[in-house]
Amino acid sequence: MFLHGDYMYYIPVGLQAICAFHSYRNGTLQKWIWLIVFLPVIGSCIYLYQEVLNNRRISTPKIDVKAVFNPGVKLQRLEDEVRFTDTFANRIKLADAYLDAGFTEKAVDIYKASLTGAFDENEHVMAQLIVAYYKLERYPEILPLAKKLYKLPQFARSRAHILYAMALEQLGDTDAAENEFKAMKGRYSYFEQRYQYGQFLIRQDRIEDAEKIFTDMLDEQPHLSAVEKKSSREWFAKAKEDLKKIYQ
After folding, report:
1. SS (H, E, C) 74-110
2. Burial of 110 (0-12, 13-18, 19+ CB in 10 A)
3. Which three-class secondary structure state does DSSP give residue 71?
4. What is the pTM of this model?
5. pLDDT tens across 66-100, in order?
């Protein structure tokens, strides 16, 4: 009964008032006012769709298409940023980009030059230097950096820790290397670390021990959450492939 008579008049008026107030608050009233006034229902619906519903949708990450197809574009931009604003943060962003792009020596130069003053023991820079030194096969230079990072809780699960263990192996200290790999073991976790431990064992001709590590990893896989499975998918695939080679 209430949908008849005068009550129907208040629906478009109410929509107009809501949309006009919302538009005023967002500074877009001049753009929308005529549509809301002269097409009360349709105009208000268009406004709500464009300015309210669309803005509440999950935003997608902005992708720099030029940088994807031409990594040099990203490097050029970061180099320009450093030239215009030579801050620690900008230099390290550039060094990280150099490292990812394979310009390892350039990355090392920036990292080393940045370890001064308040940043002389910056954790991120030292960890990135470990990655860079391993790529350059400068294994002895990894050891003092790892020693500084060793007591930090985040180092235990880091890629820098894996490379530290592998550097010890490269330097002939296989017992110390194995101790580091063992320190990174854990059920339902540490899959990259455990896979690399299995690789280490294969290099030491301890095939049965490596087989057990890979088998344990794959036995644990079904019990993980979807997110955990996805994040370690690469290591499960590699472990499965290595088991096939062992069984051949």
Report:
1. HHHHHHHHHHHCCCHHHHHHHHHHHHHHCCHHHHHHH
2. buried
3. helix
4. 0.69
5. 444 456 678 999 999 999 999 999 999 999 999 99
